[in-house]
Structure formats: C-alpha cells, structure tokens
C-alpha cells in the first residue's frame, strides 16, 4: 500500500499498511 503509518507502543515499532489495515512489519526493541 502507498499509505504507511509508523506507531510506537510497548517498546516496539509497528509499520502499518493503512490500505491493508494490517501490520506489515513489527520490530521489538532489545
């Protein structure tokens, strides 16, 4: 999707595909 949003919560980084309404990337901090 062309629409991306980055959210930070619970010490983890989420890259959302807004068009797909799903998480396409999830990276937890060490």
Task: Report what the structure shows.
With 30 residues, this protein is mainly β. The chain has one domain (1-30). The chain has strands at residues 4-9, 12-17, 22-28. It has a 3-stranded antiparallel beta sheet with strand order 1-2-3, with no helix packed on it. It is flat. It starts with a strand and ends with a strand. The model has no long low-confidence stretch (mean pLDDT 60). InterPro entries: WD40_repeat_CS, WD40_rpt.
Number of helices: 0
Total beta strands? 3
Profile the largest sheet.
Answer: 3 strands, antiparallel
Domains (count): 1
Q: List the helices and strands in order.
A: EEE
Decide which structural class fits the backbone: mainly beta
List the helices and strands and how they pair.
Layout: E1 4-9, E2 12-17, E3 22-28
Gist?
With 30 residues, this protein is an all-beta fold. It has no helices and three strands. The protein has a three-stranded antiparallel β-sheet, with no helix packed on it.
Distinctive features:
single chain; 30 residues; mainly beta; 3-stranded antiparallel sheet
């Amino acid at each position: 999707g062309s629409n991306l949003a980055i959210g930070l919560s619970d010490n983890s980084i989420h890259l959302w595909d807004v068009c797909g309404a799903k998480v396409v990337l999830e990276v937890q901090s060490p």
